[in-house]
Protein 1
Amino acid sequence: MIQKDLPEVIRDFNPLEDKMLRVIDNEGHVVNKKMMPALDDDTIINAYKLMFYERVADEMAISYQRQGRMFTYTPNLGQEAIHIAAGMNIRHDDWLVPAFREMGVLLSKGVTMKEMFLFYLGNEHGGSFMNAHNTLPIAISIGTQFHHATGIGYSIKQQKKNEAVYTFIGDGGTSEGDFSESLNFAGVWQAPVIFTIQNNQYAISVPVTSQTKSINLAVKSVGFGIPGIKVDGNDFFAMYLAYKTASEHALSGKGPVLIEAFTYRLGAHTTSDDPSKYRKKEEEVEWSLVDPLIRLEKYMRNKKIWNIDTQELKDKYKKDIDTQFKDAEKNKSYPLDDVFKFMYSDMPKELMRQKGEYEQFLSWKENRK
Amino acid sequence: MSVMTMVKAINNALDIKLSEDKSVVVYGEDVGVEGGVFRVTEGLQKKYGVDRVFDSPLAESGIVGTALGMAISGLRPVVELQFEGFTYPAFNQLATNVSRMQHRSRGKYSVPMVVRFPYGGGVNALELHSDSPEALFAHLPGLKVVIPSTPYDAKGMMISAIESEDPVIFMEPKRIYRAIKQEVAEDKFSLPLGKAKVVQEGSDVTVVAFGAMVRESQKAIAMAQEAGISVELIDLRSIYPIDRETVGESIRKTGRLVVVAEAHESFSVGSELVTIANEEAFLYLEAPPRRVMGYDTIVPLAQGEKYYIISPDRIFYEIEKSFKF
């Protein structure tokens, strides 16, 4: 069993037995003391704040979209624990190869909300994540990014760098050929890649039970000979432990790890989606009670370290986020040149010709007025 | 008769074929319970059951490859790929097997399947939701590639596509999915694949367009009319086989060709039409054939899309240039 390569602390969570790593329960009580990551109170409070920031930013983004000020957006609601736990473990030199529902991880790499907004306002500059070190743009084509993560992992190993790669996919993405191929490659190459499946139970309308007959998604690691672990994705501490362990594993040259973060997409797939078409309200309510922020808050209250005035914090965050949105809104347009200049490192004459023709049309249009 | 959008018309065609032919199956991502992200398959699972209308796992290569298996073993699959940008993972199956099976098996196995998907820009979408990849598919021998521009045509062509013994790529211009409403017969009718339609007769310039660009061309033609230019508009409808006769005849009449299409200009359907102009009407040409098409760039996101998307005045500009040449 390949799990033996994992540190003792999580080795027992065999996906073949459908075991799920959990540190706190739904009431915020510690169920597994030896699993509790050694985090001081300030770090925990900070983690909550980061999750809360992501949530407020997410709510604001949806509201801008609803106001007609922004285009299609992909909400993160309910998956913040995964993002912030990954974000707290990913280091400056580690790589982030995102799908499209990992806002908190992107923020931790130095992406700003202004950039996120610019992207969803339809400006590629936002999506370039220019100032986030070793961070790839969002991948819209499902699952394709896993291969890139593995390739980066090979580079790291071949160049003997001390870096790991964090990459993400959804439960639906595990059906794509690229998912299996890249896990296989990563296994063969022992590439330092931490693959996360955010199993939020739905690929748009299709439930994970229609996606696969596997008992869980972590078990898919077994066939490729790499360790896999199913983790409670709404449990910040469990996610933190999983990333910490996986990161140590990858950085010590032991190869890839597959993490299934078992969670729930509380919001819509995108702002164009209407979940009431395919799932029951009761199910959403049930999951909203085990929301990762509520669970962490309960833990903090139990431990008597809860000192956050959420309303005050929300007002503060909203102000910051709104300033960034307005900044993005003001700077959303870009010149014609930008359509052409990034296609090739040296622009072919043919493209210059096409641009020239368009400019001729524009001047004709101008003269016609 | 009833008033239909293209979404409704295609739904109606699928409904008719599912009802009259037990071998027809419809599947893809979110086509069952949800009825498709654009609701093209709405209500069909309820009516025909999960054995005939169903959600597949999320894998485009899997969807198209399994459809091939079904098509050669007694079923007539009509599969949906969610957006044109997600046809690329399925390209392998189309290029290596779907398009070749009949030839490879010396006619033992025909491949009666339809791969349908929304395509095209102008909807402020995320990346890979605005492409026009018709030339990629048209370049694969063995596939038919068709694009309707009206609800009526969409219904008639979809019926024919499902009844075709050959694999058909059925591209649906998402920008006009609901923008055009038209009286369409509720009863079954079909339209031949491979036949262009002269939408409007004219004598000075031939405009060939398809998909959402037909409507944009009509707006430009109204401008041309005001400027005293008589334009003949051809809706190509079928990319492959291409209707060389209709296009050639029109250019011989007008002496001028302007192609309007959203795809990247180089190595495109536009290139093919210009070739047809040369081959079929060389001695009749009064002006160099022109293409009003997308650039050889990725379709920009919303803020840059205005530079890429073809506007009626840009079409008029080219019509006038051709006329005055």
Note: Chain A has two domains: 2-334, 335-369.
Protein 2
Amino acid sequence: MRRWLAVLVLGLASATALAIDTEVAFPDAARQQRYDRWIHELRCVQCQNAAIADSPVGLASDLRRQVKEMIASGQSDDEIRRFMTERYGDFVLYDPPLKPRTYFLWAAPALFLLITVGVAARVIVRRSKGPIDSDPEEPA
Amino acid sequence: MWRYFAPAVAFLALGGLFAYALMRIDQGKLDIREIQSPLIGKAAPAFVLPSLTDPPHQIDSHALAGKPYILNVWGTWCGECRAEHPALMALARTSGLPIIGLDWKDEHSDARAYLAQLGNPYAEVAADDVGRTAIDWGVYGAPETFLVSADGIVLAKHIGAISEAVWEKKFAPHLKNGGRS
């Protein structure tokens, strides 16, 4: 009785999960976790703004099948990454690798933060020296 | 004085950049959805697939070696493929190259009816029912067209409907040295 109750509760819970891929791919937690991580890491290149885990298009389900098969046959994360990027480029990864082409991409947040802090510091220093609203460049 | 204008100048510069990019997209000169294929300059992925038009026969990509060919990914479920069909028919006549069709995850009977109705530009049509060959070729949307050299190297790829203009600009220049890579 309790088992059936659990099945019912879990069944109802999964119905509200809204995920496209609700089927459990692996019986063991370790491989299931790897699978879940990969299908959230790979972009659905067809729809471009969703992971293959969240996309209903045919190509996304084909790529989920590919990931499942590669994990089932014992292939490493590096092998899966290579398989996908050899075919679809780095764009397929939501976590792009650090290399000359992506230096700016990775440096941009720090760069913008630096610029903002620099500008803020200048403004604060200048304002702390004189009364507010005075412009040092304009004659009083 | 400049500091009163600096924000306005920065705003106009950024706005100008956005306007320029949007204009290029509008004119079809910039395609933000296009992903550069990592396959260009590399060996074309091999495949052995059943023929759509001649069912027991298998199409082996190794048999295509020796002269350049065009590979066109299509499906009857793909609206833009229908739109590009006349251009493919013209290419089949004018390009001098065989066009190999890759019928991607399609219903065979529908695909045969489609070719019977609209004409068949393909030298051969390989049926990729499970989509594995499409994955090997990095296909993410149909139609897609590849140009493969005589020595089996992917020379160019076009995403979206092919046209004579696209052919002249993206594909034809690669064929000047006899289609070798």
Note: Residues 99-129 of chain A form one domain.
